[in-house]
């Protein structure tokens, strides 16, 4: 998820090799809208299959034990979902036969399963950087420096154009530098998190790359604060996120019923840093 501007760019080349043995090093093509979402579903244990089957029949989310949200996507939603799903599939060279948001979830899980946590973040960061031309990002950054207006603009833009990705959201007011501002996007129940039941997908393929890109490209700091208990999230424009090693979101363990093969690990932050 990313606030800013919706662009359907020409495909770009991404050169990160998957960590699995099933794919040799390849250069893949990736087109993107907003922020790439997560990944990773492979074969689950029989108990997980039963849980997923139960979830499908009952209409309840296994992670929160609450009624699963039913979405009625309009033509714009379907267009954006299809575009992003194909972009994610192109990034791995691994196609799926699903349709709609399910196709996006399957594609995202494939990315998450095939790359290390560090590589996942690098992949998304490169994709976003190549999707939005630097001159355009610089223009937006120049015309809209950090201010009460720009923070409110980015928040409003997010709620209007990215509901298809994250679900219903609204702008909320907060106290910022001694005055009231409408700089927070409150996502009531993240569609992506609910659909994937994966904390690692949330942090590595949405939260961290989005924060870094928006700050570096548009000059607007943003802190994304997911609530893994009720699957809500806040995007706080104007607030710098904590250092990765201090960020509570990265200390979140997997959901007990997470069916993602490539498990999220609280130590994933350090695995590549230790080699530097």
Automatic annotation (TrEMBL):
Any one Gene Ontology MF annotation carried by this entry is: cis-trans isomerase activity
Q: Name one GO biological process term.
A: strigolactone biosynthetic process
* Residue intervals of the Beta-carotene isomerase D27-like C-terminal domain: 164-245
Species this protein is from: Deinandra increscens subsp. villosa
Any GO CC annotation of this UniProt entry? plastid
InterPro entries in the record, alphabetically?
Answer: D27-like (IPR038938), D27-like_C (IPR025114)
**Descriptive protein name:** Beta-carotene isomerase D27-like C-terminal domain-containing protein
């Amino acid at each position: 998820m990313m606030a800013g501007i919706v662009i359907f760019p020409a495909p770009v080349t991404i050169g990160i090799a998957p960590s699995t043995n099933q794919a040799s090093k390849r250069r893949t093509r990736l087109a993107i809208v907003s922020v790439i979402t997560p990944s990773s579903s492979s074969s689950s244990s029989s108990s997980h299959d039963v849980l997923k089957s139960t979830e499908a029949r009952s209409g309840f989310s296994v992670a929160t034990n609450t009624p699963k949200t039913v979405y009625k996507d309009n033509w714009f939603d379907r267009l954006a979902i299809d575009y992003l799903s194909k972009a994610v599939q192109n990034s791995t060279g691994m196609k799926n036969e699903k349709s709609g948001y399910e196709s996006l979830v399957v594609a995202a899980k494939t990315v998450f399963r095939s790359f290390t946590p560090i590589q996942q973040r690098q992949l998304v960061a490169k994709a976003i950087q190549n999707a939005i031309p630097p001159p355009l990002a610089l223009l937006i950054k120049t015309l809209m420096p950090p201010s009460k207006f720009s923070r409110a603009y980015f928040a409003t833009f997010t709620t209007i154009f990215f509901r298809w990705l994250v679900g219903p959201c609204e702008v909320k007011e907060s106290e910022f530098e001694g005055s009231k501002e409408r700089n927070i996007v409150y996502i009531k129940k993240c569609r992506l998190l609910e659909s994937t039941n994966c904390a690692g997908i949330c942090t590595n393929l949405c939260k961290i790359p989005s924060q870094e890109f928006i700050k570096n490209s548009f000059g607007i700091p943003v802190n994304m604060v997911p609530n893994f208990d009720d699957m809500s999230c806040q995007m706080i424009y104007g607030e710098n996120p904590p250092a990765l090693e201090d960020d509570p979101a990265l200390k979140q363990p997997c959901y007990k019923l997470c069916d993602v093969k490539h498990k999220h690990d609280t130590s994933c932050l350090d695995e590549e840093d230790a080699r530097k």
